[in-house]
Amino acid sequence: MRKWMTTLFTLFLTVSLLLSCAPAEIETYEDELAKAQADITALQARNQELTDEIQDLNSSIETLLQQVDEQVNDLKALNQKLNSEIGELNETIKDFLILPELQKVAKSFSQTTSSPVTFSEVSHVTTIDSSNLNDQIDDIIEATATLNIDKGTFLGVSFLKDTALPTEELNAYRDDIASIIAVGDYVIKVDWEMSDGTEFSTLALVDKDGTPKFEPILSFTPGTTQVQVKEEWGWAPSSSTDYWWQKTWSQDTALGTNGVSVKIKLTIHCDDETCKIISQSLTVDFTTGLFWKADSVKKETKYTAPSATCPGGVTECKKGEVKIAWASGFKKLKVKAKDYEIDIEGTLGCNGQKEFVMHACCDGTYPGYTEQY
Q: What confidence category does residue 373 fall into, taking pLDDT thresholds of 50, 70 and 90?
């Protein structure tokens, strides 16, 4: 009992002591709490200010991004428009650079021939690159058309797609086109019209400088320009004398490229003391352009003629006769040497013939050649 009373008394004294000190400390704690609450309120206000500023900034950024997107879209649209205009300008430049020469040649052909095929217009189709080269060769073949002209007589227009040609001939034609086509060439559509109003188109090749390389109507048809004929003669004095007479003839295509050239030479090897022929030759050499072919038949005749400079007043002479035939496109030549004839087979293309006669005598004269001396 006594112990319990002592403990209770001690507790009473402790509480009394604490109560005597509490008012001052509580007042201090209240001040600190009020300050802390003020600081929190201030921080909350600042946080709200920062939040508002961030929202304003995000809104500004969003608006700016929208404006940037709009400007980017405007720039893309402008770039697309400029690219389109540049493309159109490039096409115009291409047309200006690559079309005039082909157009000039086709128009000239149309105006200066009696062919009932009239040139209409030309237009750029595409430019050859490694990815489309083979396809363009196929397109050129598919669009091939030719005039069928036999010895100057127009017989009509033939279309390759309507003709059943052997595979080997088509393959050879494809190889020929492949041999002239090159990356950077331009494919040009050429529009034609026949006298009955029928319209058709072919495809031409023009190089990067605008020079026409191929167009079936023009490439397979002889040009209207007068063919070139050149004659030469000569001799080589010695104990035995060579006398020769040479003729060179050529025919260009309507495109202006080489169609066929031929050099014919009659040579006699003579004994100048007897004016007799020891040996003789008659040669024919051809040069043909792409899609053209030529062949010949010939006859040689020895005869005598009066001569004031030869013993007995007589000289031996040689007469050389040569008939040449040419064909373009898919026409073929069939030589009949014994009959002195060359037949033509086929309708896709043009053909013609020409005959040459030359004389050479052992007294150094060339009967029929007016410019000798």
A: very low
From the list 298, 215, 300, 220, the residue with the least C-alpha distance to 262 is: 298
Cβ atoms < 10 Å from Cβ of 33: 10
Reference 340, options 365, 318, 361, 357; nearest CA is: 357
For the record, the structure tokens of 18 come out as 């604490």
Give me the residue label for tokens 């050239």. Answer: 261
DSSP run (H or E) holding 241: strand 240-252
Give the mean model confidence (pLDDT) for residues 170-186.
Answer: 93
The length of the chain in residues reads 373
pLDDT digits (tens, 9 = 90+) for 208-250: 888 999 999 999 988 876 566 778 877 765 556 788 899 999 9
Average pLDDT, the chain: 84
Is the distance from CB of 206 to CB of 98 less than 8 angstroms? yes
- SS3 (DSSP) at 1: coil
Binned at pLDDT 50, 70 and 90, residue 355 comes out as very high
Q: Which pTM value belongs to this model? A: 0.69
In angstroms, the Cα distances linking 202 to 98, 250, 263, 285 are 16, 27, 34, 33
- The helix-helix angle for 167-180 and 133-142 (nearest 10°) equals 130
Instruction: For CA atoms 78, 83, 86, 87, give the dihedral sign.
Output: negative
Report which DSSP code applies to 363.
T
Sign of the CA dihedral with 216 first, then 221, 227, and 230 last:
positive
If you search the block for the tokens 């030589």, which residue do you land on?
335
- Could you tell me if residue 349 is left (phi over 0), alpha (psi between -120 and 50 degrees) or otherwise beta? left
Tell how far CA 205 is from the center of its chain.
4
Backbone phi, then psi, for 124, in 5-degree steps? -75, 130
Q: What confidence score (pLDDT) does residue 137 get? A: 95
Distance, first Cα to last Cα, the chain: 179
